[in-house]
Each structure stands twice: as structure tokens, then as C-alpha cells.
């Protein structure tokens, strides 16, 4: 049903990109910034499910993070989403790539009903550069975002709430319902990259990365919202990416084509790189914008602290300690960090936590799979590892 409907709506909705998408978001031809309220303050980890079906089910790290759902329940959710889209006035489809390395990149498709969500994935993922890439595009994975749809039968289905973020690995599709948070699409593909790449011997990492003038690369592992973007900023180094990366035989590569920086209390004096990057074609999520001046108010958090943009980076002062390979594996598997406001649904204050590999919520496979790969990379390349404490301010 869904594919048939999309085929009849190809014209005008496929990879519309900028400047058309921002104009459709704000409804004005001279707008520079597209802004939307997602309605949710972060990922709904408790509403994330994976279909328990072979052969993928034999590889999944089942538990509180990767909750199982039957193929029958998923099919019901999918049909509910398809029916909703069957009566939609407009549908936006983005075809692009996850992974800057051509040898391992994946073709991804996003189907959305809202222009700002289409613009979000257009900014966040790697865009096709030629018409030939678009023609005959067959995605490796599709995410259908039906944010306006809620699951009234969630109790009958054995789910946790009306919200659902459900993955069917065998059918190469995921459906999202009940949450307007743009990051669900971004992290959904990240979860899939964390499934695909390690099975091919490529390390998938929740980290930021930059490169020096002599080709030396630095990786910064942290949880969402705790400073990966800030730590990777350096005026003398090239930013590879701020959140999701792979480590293969060819080197370090970004999964994405954009950054997803927090903008709460943002100002030009303290974080000029991020502030100056908010210009034409940038997208602000959960950010108040003055109706007349079109100026964003980064200090207004009356609805949520989950204010973000596709942006660059800033810097902070930190201290570090060199680690042995054994110590590195201990800290990597422990993932001691903090959950902060605006990074997860229901989190309003900083909370100490342990998150395996500094990204446990996005790991379909057992954490030791990633740790083994990381240890192999460290030993092969004689990589130095440091424990960084960024809670220190500059000396006075």
C-alpha cells in the first residue's frame, strides 16, 4: 500500500532539498532558517523495538535496550502507518547515504509528512550528487516517520506506550509513530550502522573526530549532549564529524553529512563556530524564532531544553590521563558518563549513568563485539588512548 501511494506522489516530493524545503517549513520565500518543535525532548528509548526474527535475532543483544516485538505486531504498526499515509496531503521522500566511505556506505530512504523533518534528514545525511544516483535508487533501509500516528492498541501489543520506534531488520524498514523528535531518524540509522558494520569488521563508534595537518586523527567518545562537539573543535584541526563514525581499513569516516549541536543558551561570544553556522539552509529544532524578526531565542527553554541545530563546533578546557589498552577497554565498556537535559525523553537534570561503549542505547549487538573491534584497531595502529575530564575550567 505504501509503495503504491509513493509512486503516485513522486513529482515534487522526492529530494526537494534547499531552498524549497525551508520555504515550505516557514511559508515565506525569504526565510533563512527553518524551525520546528518536535514535541519530544529526546529519544524514546523505552519505545524502541526490534522484530524478533531469524537470522538477525540470533545476533541481537536483547534486553532493556533492544526490546523484542513480534513480526505480527510490526506488520500491524506498518499497516497503520501505511493507511495514514494513504490519506496524506503531501509526502516528502529523501534518498541519500549513511557513511562517507563508498566501500561500506548504505543507501537510506526517509519518508516523512512534515517539511522540516525532510529538511532535517537532507541536512543530516549525505546527499546524492548526480541524477544517475537518484534514478533507480534502491534503499538498503527505509525509515517511515508517521509522527502523527499513535498506537492506541499498545497494551494489547505488549508495548510500553502509544509511541513506537520499531525496526524490522529482515524487511529493511523501520516505522516511527507518536514522536516528532527529529533525532529518532538520525539515531535509527546509527543503530543500523552499528548492526551492519561490525559484522563486516568495521568499527562503529559514538564519537566525534578531527584530523591534524599531518593526517593524525583524534576520536572523542562521550554520551549525547556531554561535549563531543565541543571537545573536537580546534582551529588548527579539520573536523571530520561530531557524533557518528566508522573505523575501517581505509581510516576514520563520518556516517553523516552534518552536525547536530545543542543550541541552548548559545551566543556568539562563547560558541562562535556554532553560532555563525546558523545561516541559510541551517535547521533549528525546538527553538523559538521571533515571528517578525525571524531571530532565534536560544535562551527560551520554556518548552524544552532539547534545542539543536545542524552546525559546527566550539571548544572547552579539559584534562587528560593516558590509558593502557586494558584500561581503555574497561572505560569503553563501562561508559561512565551523564545523561543531561534535552538528550533523552524524561531527563531534566544531569544524571550519572553507565552506557556501554558510550552509546549503549544504539547498540544492536553485544558490547563486547565493539570492544573487540576497538582493541584490534588500537593494537594494529599503535593508537594512544586518554581519559579526558572536561569538568575543569581554565586556570586563573
UniProtKB/TrEMBL annotation:
Query: This protein's superkingdom?
Result: Eukaryota
Gene3D superfamilies the record matches? 3.90.228.20, Phosphoenolpyruvate Carboxykinase, domain 1
Pathway participation? Carbohydrate biosynthesis; gluconeogenesis
Output the SUPFAM superfamilies linked to this UniProt entry.
PEP carboxykinase N-terminal domain, PEP carboxykinase-like
Which chemical reaction does it catalyze? oxaloacetate + ATP = phosphoenolpyruvate + ADP + CO2
GO molecular function terms attached to this record: ATP binding; kinase activity; metal ion binding; phosphoenolpyruvate carboxykinase (ATP) activity
Enumerate the Pfam families for this protein: PEPCK_ATP (PF01293)
EC annotation from Swiss-Prot or TrEMBL: 4.1.1.49
Q: Which GO terms describe its biological process?
A: gluconeogenesis
Give yes or no: UniProt keyword ATP-binding.
Answer: yes
The record's GO CC annotations read: cytosol
Q: Which InterPro entries match?
A: PEP_carboxykinase_ATP, PEP_carboxykinase_C, PEP_carboxykinase_N, PEPCK_ATP_CS
Top EC class for this record = lyase
Under PROSITE patterns, the record lists: PEPCK_ATP
Q: Keywords in UniProt for this one?
A: ATP-binding, Cytoplasm, Decarboxylase, Gluconeogenesis, Kinase, Lyase, Manganese, Metal-binding, Nucleotide-binding, Pyruvate, Transferase
Q: Which family does it belong to?
A: Belongs to the phosphoenolpyruvate carboxykinase (ATP) family.
Name of the molecule in the record: phosphoenolpyruvate carboxykinase (ATP)
Give the species.
Phytophthora fragariae
Amino acid at each position: 500500500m505504501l509503495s503504491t501511494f509513493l509512486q503516485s506522489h513522486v513529482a515534487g516530493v522526492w529530494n526537494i532539498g534547499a531552498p524549497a524545503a525551508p520555504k515550505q517549513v516557514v511559508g515565506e520565500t525569504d526565510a533563512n532558517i527553518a524551525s520546528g518543535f518536535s514535541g519530544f525532548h529526546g529519544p524514546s528509548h523505552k519505545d524502541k523495538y526490534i522484530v524478533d526474527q531469524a537470522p538477525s535475532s540470533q545476533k541481537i543483544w536483547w534486553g532493556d535496550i533492544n526490546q523484542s516485538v513480534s513480526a505480527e505486531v510490526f506488520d500491524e504498526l506498518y499497516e497503520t502507518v501505511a493507511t495514514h499515509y494513504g490519506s496524506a496531503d503531501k509526502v516528502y521522500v529523501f534518498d541519500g547515504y549513511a557513511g562517507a566511505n563508498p566501500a561500506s556506505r548504505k543507501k537510506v530512504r526517509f519518508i516523512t509528512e512534515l517539511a522540516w523533518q525532510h529538511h532535517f534528514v537532507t541536512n543530516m545525511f549525505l546527499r546524492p550528487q548526480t541524477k544517475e544516483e537518484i534514478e533507480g535508487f534502491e534503499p538498503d533501509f527505509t525509515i517511515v516517520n508517521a509522527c502523527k500516528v499513535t498506537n492506541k492498541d499498545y497494551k494489547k501489543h505488549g508495548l510500553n506506550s502509544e509511541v513506537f520506534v520499531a525496526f524490522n531488520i529482515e524487511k529493511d524498514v523501520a516505522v516511527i509513530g507518536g514522536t516528532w523528535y527529529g533525532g529518532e531518524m538520525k539515531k535509527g540509522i546509527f543503530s543500523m550502522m552499528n548492526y551492519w558494520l561490525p559484522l563486516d569488521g568495521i568499527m562503529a563508534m559514538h564519537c566525534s573526530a578531527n584530523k591534524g595537518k599531518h593526517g593524525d586523527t583524534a576520536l572523542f567518545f562521550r554520551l549525547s549532549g556531554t561535549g563531543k562537539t565541543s571537545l573536537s573543535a580546534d582551529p588548527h584541526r579539520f573536523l571530520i564529524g561530531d557524533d557518528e563514525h566508522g573505523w575501517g581499513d581505509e581510516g576514520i569516516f563520518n556516517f553523516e553529512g552534518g552536525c547536530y549541536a545543542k543550541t541552548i543558551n548559545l551566543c556568539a561570544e562563547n560558541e562562535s563556530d556554532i553560532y555563525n553556522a546558523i545561516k541559510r539552509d541551517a535547521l533549528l529544532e525546538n527553538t523559538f524564532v521571533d515571528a517578525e524578526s525571524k531571530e532565534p531565542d536560544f535562551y527560551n527553554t520554556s518548552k524544552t531544553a532539547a534545542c539543536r541545530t545542524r552546525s559546527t563546533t566550539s571548544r572547552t578546557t579539559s584534562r587528560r590521563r593516558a590509558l593502557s589498552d586494558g584500561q581503555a577497554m574497561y572505560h569503553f565498556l563501562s561508559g561512565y558518563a551523564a545523561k543531561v537535559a534535552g538528550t533523552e525523553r524524561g531527563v531534566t537534570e544531569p544524571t550519572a549513568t553507565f552506557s556501554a561503549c558510550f552509546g549503549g542505547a544504539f547498540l544492536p549487538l553485544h558490547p563486547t563485539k565493539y570492544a573487540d573491534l576497538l582493541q584490534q584497531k588500537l593494537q594494529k595502529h599503535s593508537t594512544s588512548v586518554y581519559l579526558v575530564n572536561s569538568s575543569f575550567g581554565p586556570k586563573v
